[in-house]
Amino acid sequence: MDKIKVLVANRPRLMRELVLETISEQPDIEIVGEVNNAADIERMVAESNPDFVIIALDEADRRPAICDGLLARSPATKILALAPERNSSLFFWTVVDIHSARVESSEEGILGALRGKTSAVVP
After folding, report:
1. Range of the domain at 20
2. DSSP string of 17-76, one letter each residue
3. How confident is the model at residue 120 (pLDDT cuts 50, 70, 90)?
4. pTM recorded for the entire structure
5. Who wins on pLDDT, 90 or 13?
6. What DSSP character marks residue 118?
7. Whether residue 87 is found in the same domain as residue 105
8. Does pLDDT of 110 surpass 50?
């Protein structure tokens, strides 16, 4: 069984230490790194390829700005954002959603589909 790889990148230091203490004893979890500086998070994600990144949740019910970039570059990575002082946590992940539509089998239909024109789509 593969271990769940976790990069711990939340702040402040005390919170990061509590998270590390909580998960470090779990036999199915491997801590692949700890980030002290938010500027290093993206580089560490690229280097360690974690399954999860744990970050700070600065504003309740609002996705941290770093999530979009991390999930765009590493769509298989999941993000857990924690704000213990507000007793709040959010979980972020990406989902690949494949869409399809019938396209008219003609030059107009093919070119229209390439150009994103819905008039070339057959109902």
Report:
1. 4-92
2. HHHHHHHHT-TTEEEEEE-SSGGGHHHHHHHH--SEEEEE--STTS--THHHHHHHH-TT
3. very low
4. 0.75
5. 90
6. G
7. no
8. yes
